[in-house]
Model the fold of this input.
Amino acid sequence: MRPKTLQDFLVDLARNDPRAGKAATLAEAGDSKRPYGLAVMLEGRETRWQINARSAERDDFDQPERPVEGGPISMDGPWAEGAEGWLAQLIAGSGSKQIQDIEQWSLRNEPKAGLTVKCYSGAWLYLRAL
Done:
């Protein structure tokens, strides 16, 4: 999965989640510094997430995208607090067979909220709270 693919997927999921308010790409929300990301209203407050990626192979992102599927991930917690936990649950509950695992940074005692989304294709996508 590529950053743009994940961005479009997340915006669509958020727009259809009753817990979320307005959802848009970062570009639609006026952020021109970051090429990929999500802006969404949660509990009356906007949260923004930048999306970056790492590929298993150095030149994978230069090639046409070929989705690689496996089994869907588990919905078993634990879940982080706030927007990070909401986003992890949103992704886990999507049923996407391209996503192998989700790591919540705050559960690893990272200083910044975020997620690492590991895909069956070997790509790792990073969603960092802004």
Q: What stands out?
A: The CA atoms of residues 14 and 23 lie 6 Å apart. The mean pLDDT is 92. The helical segments are 3-15, 82-92.
